[in-house]
Amino acid sequence: MEDKAYTPDEVAQLFQISKHTVYELIKRGELRAFKVGNKMRVEQAELERYKDSTKAPARKSRIDPTESSDSNFIPIRLAGSHDFLVEHFVKQVSSALQLQIQPTYIGSLEGLMMLYRGQSDIAAMHLLDPSSQEYNLPFIHQLFIYESISVLRFASREQGFIVVKGNPKEIHDFHDLTRQEIHFVNRQKGSGTRFLLDSRLSSLGINPEKINGYEKEEWNHLTTASYISRGIADVAFGIRSAASHLGLDFIPITNEQFDLVFRFTDENKIALHALIRYLQSTEFLNSLTELEGYDIRDLGTIIYQKKYDEVRPQSSPFSDR
């Protein structure tokens, strides 16, 4: 492939899929795209990244065969918020365990609802409850009454304003977003970042209709930040690592808790135990190198579990720490 940007039609031809499927992949954040005017484009490097992320494991799973007589494991479905460390986890699991995780990056709320409906095995989330100012657990307590679940802390992330180098528009707080000359780009409804933004705007009494670009929504952090790097917008609300990826400046606002929710079933419990052991392992910890904007001191800590004893194997899956 030449070093160029591809249209959705060209991507569909390259992958032999429909153009509708390409737009769905972009909408869910699985394929990163940018806009030139009203036209969508996908860079060559992004096509290569997507191809690598969808390759099936070439070798037999390293899941301990003594844990089950069935050597055929269905792929594990992960749904929820997009995050660079989650992408890294998915890739590492494929090479370290030869266990396939199929990610769908559709936002924290939708990911949690997919887990609740049994349409995924893991949810990635960072939802702030406005009433308690607590992350994730208030939503989990309301939804999962009879299910067997474990909630593991993945990371603490910095959220703030993403701006161009030098911050020439002098954007420092939420009130600056209402200035007439400021162009903003938002995240989609249901994303944890959107929850946090709307909560802050409400607490400050800021009318979102006064924010130029509030209605403009994107589906992942990198695509949102790319609006700033390409000069289409002046500011986005997102994570520090997205700003770092594109060489942009970052004004920190708060730290948030990013968690993984595992829902156990008879079909997935052996694979999920293996994933948890790996998540808590020194091997995975040592694989984490690009950590700007993240705090991983509590990585792998179980912060909540419900009816877990009913599906726990005889040996503890949490001993490899």
Major β-sheet profile: 10 strands, mixed
Strand content: 15-25%
CATH architecture descriptor text of the domain at 159-254 = 3-Layer(aba) Sandwich
**Structural class assignment:** alpha/beta
The number of E-state strands comes to 15
What is the H-and-E element order? Answer: EHHEEHEHEHEEEHEEHEHEHEHHEE
Shape: globular
Question: Can you tell me about this structure?
Answer:
The structure is a single chain. The protein has 321 residues and is of the alpha/beta class. Among the domains are: 1-55, Arc Repressor Mutant, subunit A (Orthogonal Bundle), CATH 1.10.10; 159-254, Periplasmic binding protein-like II (D-Maltodextrin-Binding Protein, domain 2, 3-Layer(aba) Sandwich). It is built from eleven helices and 15 strands. The protein has helices at 8-15, 19-27, 44-53, 84-96, 108-116, 137-143, 192-203, 221-229, 240-245, 269-279, 282-287; strands at 5-6, 34-36, 39-43, 76-80, 101-105, 122-125, 128-129, 134-135, 148-163, 184-187, 217-218, 235-239, 249-264, 294-295, 302-306. The strands form three sheets. Strands 4, 5, 6, 9, 10, 11, 12, 13, 14 and 15 form a ten-stranded mixed β-sheet that branches. Strands 1-3-2 form a three-stranded antiparallel β-sheet. Helix 1 crosses helix 2 (19-27). It is globular, with a radius of gyration of 20 Å. Residues 56-61, 65-71 and 310-321 have low confidence and may be disordered.
